Structures are given as structure tokens and as C-alpha cells.
Amino acid sequence: GDMLLMEIANRLRVHTRSTPTGEPWCAARLGGDEFVLLMERVKSLDEARDLAAELLEKLSAPYHLAGNEIRTSASIGIVLGDDKYKCADEVIRDADAAMYRAKADGKARAVTFDRQMHLAVQARHKLETDLHRAIERDELTLEYQPIISLETGSVEGFEALLRWDHSDMGRIMPMDFIHIAEETGQILPIGNWVMHRACEQLVSWRQTLPDSQLSMNINLSRNQLIHPNLTREVSEAIHNSGVDPKWLNLEITESAIMRDMDTALGVLKELASLGVKIVMDDFGVGHSSLYCLKELPLNMLKIDRTFVSNMESNIVYPAIIQAVAALTHNMGIGLVAEGVETADQVAQLQALECNFAQGYLFARPMPPDRCIQFIKRSADGTSMIGLKRPA
To answer: How far is the C-alpha of 330 from the C-alpha of 354, rounded, in Å?
Structure first.
């Protein structure tokens, strides 16, 4: 990696010595794998784009390092300096924003900073700033979506889902702020808050409904998974709430586990030693192997909603679900189907011997008080919407 960075720096150095204006440009490394070029006397935006295209071509040529041929690409953000900028940091900030847009658009390209990007940067900065205060302002809340047994029709448990009720912008969904929380490190205190709140909620429900066997599914991010204090924080949440750990299901996505299998394996074993259950979420869209499944201390798989939503249009998907169901049965673990929206999907999942289902057909995520009502309605002997209980 260091050799590659030095070779990239050398190519930039050579390229910036022979410029159209005859004067060397300033090239510098900002940190990590990010570099910046200060190009003076560029006459137009088109010229800047042409120069960026030349750089992309030069940087994409193969590198020969320690007997290996390495190929890589670059993402470039372009910003034109003008009177609106008051300091160098503002110029670099906007170039950085354009560079990240280039990465998001598919890499190996150059993107020019524009006003819409500026507004997006401002909006993100506000979200980032406000997110730091969301817990202390009591703006975060949890809603819960039921997980239904396809064998009995009863409510098996709930998945805790984070919501942000912003004081000015109203409700903000996780897809609009979780990535910011992960990038800024705020996911760690937020995740710890979710853990404590969900455990407390489960204890409250089980006290209200002492005959129930409710469980609680709580999502863990990759940043939480690799954090050294995770096991201690989960243990504290269990102790402080008084919840029986066997009713806690900790969900980690397949991709988060597989990004660092060795670390994940050690952490998941530590968590399992607390008595909690481990659930692999979004199964089928990552890159896990059967050997990895055997090694991990899993209690349940949640098959990705993509497979469920395509069941009725492509015969391949029911076959895949059937194979996964057979796998989980042989492993002695449960299988949950996510994203169930039609009664026909339920019927197919029952025929495929899937254990549990979750989706809008049964209920959207709801506040805690409505969950109690939902449980009571499902326990009164009537079939739930879209679920025909087996005889």
C-alpha cells in the first residue's frame, strides 16, 4: 500500500512539472489515499476537465510493484476558485465533496462541484451537527415491527427500528442519517442507546404480558461489531434492564460479518457467551460460505427481502429459499423471511417450511403502545391478516 501511494505521488509530481502554462502546479498529499492539486491560470472549466481526464488516464496505467502488476483508478473532484471563498479550507472542502460524489457515481471519473452539491454539503453538515445532540435532546425514538411465526400465527417478537424526530425537519428515516452516524462515529453512542432502550421495552412488555414469550431483535452496525467495548455494553444493558438475555436477538448483516470474518467470529462468540442469540441479517446478498456458517455461533438467518419479493415472478427464488430452509433446519437454527407483503408469499413460505415472517402484510413498524394491542389481537384466536394458520 505504501509503495502504491509513493508511486501515485511520483506520477503526480512528474505530471505537474510539465504544465500548459509552463509553471509547476502545487501537488500535495492530504492524508490516506487523498491528494490535492492546486492548478493556477487555468482559463476555463473545460480546460480543468481536460486536465482531470489526463490525470485519470495517467493514474489508471498499471503499476509494477515488488514483481506484481497493480491496477487502480482515481476519483477526482474539481472546484473553481473565486471570490466566494474566504479561505483555503472552504475550497478543499468543496473539492472533497465533489470527489466523494465521483466515488458515489461509480469511481474512475471527475465531477465538478456545483450549487446543488453545495446545498447537499450544507444539509449534511446540519444533519451531522444535529445528530450529535439528538440523544440529549430526546429526539431519537424506537418503533417495533412484529416477527410472526408461520407455524402458529403468533407474535414471536419484535425488531427495534430507529427513528429520528428532528425538532425542525420532522421525522427522519434511518436511510437518511445512519450512514452519517457510521462515518462520524456517532453510531456507537446511538447504538448503545438503542440497546438499553430496547431491552427496557422488552422487560416492560413481558411484565404487562407475563404469559408471552416475546423476544427482541436489535440491529448492530459493523462499527459496533468491531468496537472493543461492544460485549461490555451489551452486558451492561442486560444487567441494567433486568432482561433475560435468551430473549435478545442481535442482528448483524451478512456483509458486516464477512468484511472481517476473524474479528466477527471472536466478537460473536463473546456475545453468545452472554446468553443472547445471534441473527445473520440480509442473508443471500453477501459472500458467506457454508464453512463460515458452520463456524459462526448463529441461531437464526433472515433471508433478504429481495428473494421474497421475487418469489411470485421467478421460480428460481422459491428454490433458493427452499434450499436455505433445508440448510437452517439441518443446522438447527431458525429462518425469517423479510419483506412479506402478500398472502400468496405467506402461503409459499409456509410450503417451503420457513419458520417466521416479517413485513408490511402483518404490520408496519409501530410505537410501543400499539404493539401491546397488536399482540392481544393476534392472541384472541383469530387469524392474522394474510396468514392462514396450518390445521
So the answer is: 13
68-70 and 63-65 strand pairing: antiparallel
Q: How far apart are CA 320 and CA 291, in angstroms?
A: 18
Separation CA 242–CA 206 (nearest Å): 11
Residue 288: the pLDDT is 67
Q: Rounded CA gap, 37 and 30, in Å?
A: 10
Spatial separation of the C-alpha atoms in residues 208 and 369, rounded to whole Å: 11
C-alpha cell at 284: 443471500
Longest dimension (CA), the chain: 85
Give kind and range of the element (H or E) at residue 29: strand 26-31
String of DSSP letters for 301-347: EEE-HHHHHTTTT-THHHHHHHHHHHHHHHHT-EEEE----SHHHHH
Per-residue DSSP letter, 2: H
- What are the pLDDT digits (tens) for 170-211? 999 999 999 999 989 999 999 999 999 999 999 999 999 988
Q: What is the CA radius of gyration of the chain?
A: 26
402461503: which residue's cell? Answer: 347
Separation between Cα atoms, residue 374 and residue 272, nearest integer Å: 30
CB 141 within 8 A of CB 163: yes
The whole model's pTM is what? 0.80
